[in-house]
Amino acid sequence: MPAMTLLGWFHTIMGVAAILLAAAALYRHGLIRSSDREGAAYLVITLIVAGSALGIYNQGGFGVAHYLAVLTLVAAFGGFILERFNLFGRFSPYFQAIAYTATILFHMIPAITDFLRRLPVGDPFIDSFDSPVLQGFHLSFLGLYVLGVAVQIFKLRAQAS
User: Fold this and answer.
1) Do the domain assignments include residue 56?
2) What is the pLDDT of residues 34-66, one digit of tens each?
3) How many domains does the chain have?
4) How far apart are the first and last CA of the chain?
5) Which domain covers residue 31, as residue numbers?
6) Ramachandran angles phi, psi of 4, nearest 5°
7) pTM of the entire structure?
8) Would 1 be classed as within a structural domain?
């Protein structure tokens, strides 16, 4: 694994801050919304993290992490449009929750991948993207995403009635 660049460190630190803010927003409000302080900070930092990811090329070219950064930008922008303009009427908050929560998933996939490929230094947990350990984490994050979206949908339905 190549050494971390200054951009890589900035990206990593901001990514950790984003995840902590997302957790705070979900804990405090049950949803990520740009109208809440934690949600707004999360979305701004998420845009910074996704943008900085597009400038990291330590794997030799445009790869999966770059595609996830683009998906993060699309999901964050889509969630914001849904939140502000109510394009789908009463269904907009549901799609907004799906989009904003997807940004967390898109943060976590490259984060755990990089973590497992770098640590412990000199003898990382995994040496391949095909590692069953890594695939298990990815599937777990996908399951948590589905569960998290379901909880948010139930919360939104309860608020609507």
Assistant:
1) yes
2) 999 999 999 999 999 999 999 886 666 788 889
3) 1
4) 52
5) 6-160
6) -75, 135
7) 0.91
8) no
